């Protein structure tokens, strides 16, 4: 220890050692000063931006005139008052905002996605349709993550019941349009993002205009089936990338929230009906969705029925805010819409940036549909006396729709989901001469049922080529099951060409 002390003392006592130590100390002091100056300059820029914004004025009374959706027609605080947040947002949109500060705010995304990936995100234009519990979370994270331009579309207003699941709305926002409340809050987070708030109902009449501007991605957070199907079909037909949220209502298990193709979604009425209606329009795959595989069960929440008092008020359809929109209360655990919205935003961000994803894939049943189609042709040919070259006007899409949506991917006889086959349910009309006209080769979806191969073989022998009726051979319970499936299909068939 003494030798070390003596060495230090010797170094300090020498002129050269003193110079070295002085240089080291000076370098440290200069470095610290530079860092301090850079930090001070950064803080000064932030302070300058904030100090240049005039103070908020007192909120004025909201105009009492209402829109067709029941929301106030004008909002003086949001539109006319030069408050601090609006001024900052306006300046940022004009480009008067420090790029270094933007990059610092996006630093974590930048190192994750890389400069090129972040640049793609910042240059993107995303449209969010539906800004309630799911859409507000999706929009919030897209803005926080640096999406350069976003359009918010929703006709509805914030209510007290919205506050259990909305990403940003508070008591002061109740009674204001959801898009206005969302924009107001998000402009305080990222004022350089261009945020358009469209307080309108998306429908086919306005659809093209509301999707104008060549969006990079569309996020569907609509909870009305008709509108949802129209939006998804329009985006799919126009080649616009879109992702859709299925139902978050009545769900409570976040570990069951999945991202996958529309053909894979399950265990949700909204998902099932949306998928079924899209298949009718010829869209079976190609649309990513966020859905939950959580199954309903005893003790779990379910759609609440309307009370007798509500029915006594008149036509149930007249109780909705808008025609064809739900009038029943949907049980929603406040956390679940957030999970759905975050999954939507996550998918859009990685897709925009080109970041690799490895979602688990559902089973591809295209080969099964092809085999079922071939075996159906064989069966129909035998019933007609071995017609050569028989062609049936049914596509793989038709086969898939009938198998998955009408018969739930199971045999109508036994409920078995393997070795499936499509076969005619009732015998062909009898022809003494054995001749079949071309138009009599037609087969409609309503003629067919799904069975296992063994069941179909028995059905062809005993019912189609034999003398027994379906009820005599299979029993009344099976016949009722088939009739129920046909009844459901008749209900959905009216949407096939809409």
TrEMBL record:
Record-annotated THIF-type NAD/FAD binding fold domain positions: 108-364
Transmembrane regions listed in the UniProt entry: 20-37, 124-143
Cellular compartment(s): Mitochondrion outer membrane
GO biological process: cyclic threonylcarbamoyladenosine biosynthetic process
Topological relation to the membrane, as annotated: Multi-pass membrane protein
InterPro entries: ThiF/MoeB/HesA (IPR045886), ThiF_NAD_FAD-bd (IPR000594), Ubiquitin-activating_enz (IPR035985)
Known function: Catalyzes the ATP-dependent dehydration of threonylcarbamoyladenosine at position 37 (t(6)A37) to form cyclic t(6)A37 (ct(6)A37) in tRNAs that read codons beginning with adenine.
Name of the protein this chain belongs to: THIF-type NAD/FAD binding fold domain-containing protein
């Amino acid at each position: 220890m003494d030798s070390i002390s003596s060495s230090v003392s010797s170094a300090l006592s020498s002129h050269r050692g003193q110079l070295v130590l002085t240089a080291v100390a000076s370098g440290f002091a200069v470095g610290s000063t530079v860092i301090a100056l850079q930090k001070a300059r950064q803080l000064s820029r932030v302070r300058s931006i904030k100090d240049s914004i005039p103070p908020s004025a007192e909120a004025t009374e909201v105009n009492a005139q209402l829109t067709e959706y029941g929301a106030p027609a004008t909002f003086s605080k949001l539109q006319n008052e030069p408050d601090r947040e609006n001024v900052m947002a306006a300046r940022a949109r004009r480009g008067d905002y420090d790029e270094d500060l933007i990059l610092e705010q996006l630093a974590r995304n930048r190192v994750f996605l890389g400069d090129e990936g972040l640049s793609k995100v910042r240059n993107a234009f995303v449209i969010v349709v539906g800004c309630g519990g799911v859409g507000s979370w999706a929009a919030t994270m897209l803005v926080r993550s640096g999406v350069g331009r976003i359009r918010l579309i929703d006709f509805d207003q914030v209510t007290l019941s919205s506050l259990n699941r909305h990403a940003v709305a508070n008591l002061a926002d109740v009674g204001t349009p959801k898009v206005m409340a969302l924009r107001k809050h998000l402009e305080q987070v990222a004022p350089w993002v261009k945020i358009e708030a469209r307080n309108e109902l998306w429908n086919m009449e306005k659809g093209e205009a509301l999707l104008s501007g060549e969006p990079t991605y569309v996020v569907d957070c609509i909870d009305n089936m008709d509108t949802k199907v129209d939006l998804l079909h329009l985006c799919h037909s126009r080649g616009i990338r879109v992702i859709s949220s299925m139902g978050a209502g009545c769900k409570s298990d976040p570990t069951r929230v999945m991202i996958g193709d529309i053909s894979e979604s399950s265990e949700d009425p909204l998902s099932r009906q949306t998928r079924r209606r899209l298949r009718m329009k010829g869209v079976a795959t190609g649309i990513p969705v966020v859905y939950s595989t959580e199954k309903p069960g005893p003790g779990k929440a379910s759609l609440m029925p309307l009370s007798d008092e509500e029915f006594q008020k008149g036509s149930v359809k007249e109780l909705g805010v808008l025609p064809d929109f739900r009038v029943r209360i949907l049980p929603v655990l406040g956390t679940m819409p957030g999970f759905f919205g975050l999954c939507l935003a996550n998918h859009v961000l990685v897709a925009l940036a080109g970041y690799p994803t490895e979602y688990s894939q559902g089973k591809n049943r295209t080969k099964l549909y092809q085999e079922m189609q071939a075996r159906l042709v064989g069966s129909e040919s035998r019933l007609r006396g071995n017609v050569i070259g028989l062609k049936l006007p049914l596509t793989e899409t038709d086969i898939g729709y009938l198998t998955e949506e009408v018969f739930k991917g199971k045999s109508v006889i036994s409920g078995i989901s393997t070795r499936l086959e499509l076969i005619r349910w009732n015998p062909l009309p009898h022809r003494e001469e054995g001749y079949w006209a071309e138009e009599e080769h037609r087969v409609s979806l309503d003629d067919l049922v799904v069975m296992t191969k063994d069941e179909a073989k028995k059905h062809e022998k005993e019912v189609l080529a034999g003398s027994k009726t379906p009820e005599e051979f299979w029993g009344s319970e099976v016949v009722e099951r088939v009739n129920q499936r046909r009844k459901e299909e008749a209900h959905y068939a009216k949407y096939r060409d809409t």
